[in-house]
Specification:
The chain is about 80% helix and about 0% strand. The protein is an all-alpha fold.
Length: about 250
C-alpha cells in the first residue's frame, strides 16, 4: 500500500509543481496579507506586544493552511469528474490509498507553504523564544490542523457538482481567522463579536501557537485547540470515508 501511495503522491506533487497559480495562491497571498497588516495597519493596531509580526504570524499560518486545502478539494473533484478516480479503484490497489494519496499531498504541499511563510516572517523581523521542543509542538499543532481541514476538504471534493462548489467551502475557513484573536485581542471587539471570537476554534489554536512561539511555553488554550483539531478530524474522516464508500457502490 505504501508503494502505491508513493506513486499516486508523485503524480499529485508533479501536478502541483506544474501549476504556478497554486503556488502563488497558497504561499504568496498569505505573505501579502502579512506585509499589509504589518507595514500598513500594524502601527495603528494595539496588541500589547512590541513586535506585531510576532503576534500576527500564527493566524497567517492558519490562513495559509486554509487556502492550501482548497486545492485538495479541487484535485479530488478533477479526479472524480475526469474518470481517473473510477479507473484507480478498478486497479489492483487498496482503494483507500487513493484518498490517502490526496491527504498526504495536502500535508506535504501545505507544510512547504507554511515554511515559506515563516521564512518571510523571519525576514520581516519575526523572532521566537521557543526551543526545539517548542517548535516541534507548533509543528504538531499545525499538522493536526492540516489533517483536520484536509479530511474536511475531501467531502466537497467527492460530492461537489462544479469546480466552484468544490472550493467554495474554503472561503469561510479563510475568513474565520479575521474574527478571532489572530489579528487583534478579542477583548477589543464588540461584546457579541468578542464572544463568538473567543469560542471559535481558530482563537484557541492561534493562542496556543503564539504562547509557544513567543513565551516558549504552552497555556490552557492548548487543550481546547487539540480538542477542536482532533474532533473536526474524526468527524470529517468518518463522513469522507462513508461518502467514498457510497461512491464505490
Amino acid at each position: 500500500m505504501k508503494s502505491k501511495i508513493r506513486v499516486l503522491l508523485g503524480r499529485l506533487m508533479r501536478n502541483i509543481m506544474r501549476s504556478p497559480d497554486t503556488i502563488i495562491t497558497v504561499a504568496v497571498t498569505p505573505i501579502m496579507i502579512l506585509l499589509l497588516f504589518v507595514y500598513v495597519f500594524g502601527g495603528a493596531i494595539e496588541t500589547g506586544t512590541d513586535n506585531y509580526v510576532n503576534y500576527l504570524l500564527p493566524g497567517i499560518l492558519l490562513i495559509t493552511i486554509a487556502s492550501g486545502v482548497a486545492y485538495t478539494s479541487l484535485r479530488l473533484f478533477n479526479d472524480v469528474k475526469s474518470g481517473l478516480m473510477a479507473r484507480f479503484i478498478t486497479m489492483p490497489i487498496k482503494r483507500s490509498s487513493v484518498l490517502w494519496a490526496h491527504v498526504v499531498t495536502s500535508l506535504v504541499s501545505n507544510a512547504l507553504a507554511v515554511v515559506v511563510v515563516i521564512f518571510a516572517a523571519l525576514l520581516m523581523g519575526f523572532r521566537s523564544n521557543a526551543d526545539l521542543v517548542g517548535w516541534l509542538g507548533v509543528a504538531a499543532i499545525l499538522g493536526l490542523f492540516m489533517l483536520a481541514l484536509t479530511w474536511l476538504a475531501v467531502i466537497p471534493g467527492l460530492t461537489a457538482k462544479s469546480m466552484e462548489g468544490a472550493t467554495a467551502y474554503s472561503y469561510p475557513l479563510i475568513f474565520l481567522p479575521f474574527i478571532s484573536s489572530a489579528f487583534v485581542p478579542t477583548e477589543t471587539m464588540p461584546k457579541i463579536v468578542g464572544v463568538f471570537a473567543e469560542n471559535q476554534p481558530v482563537t484557541s489554536i492561534v493562542n496556543s501557537i503564539r504562547a509557544i512561539l513567543n513565551d516558549g511555553a504552552v497555556n490552557n488554550d492548548i487543550w481546547a485547540a487539540l480538542a477542536w483539531c482532533i474532533g473536526i478530524m474524526i468527524v470529517a474522516y468518518i463522513i469522507s470515508t462513508q461518502v467514498f464508500k457510497r461512491q464505490l457502490t
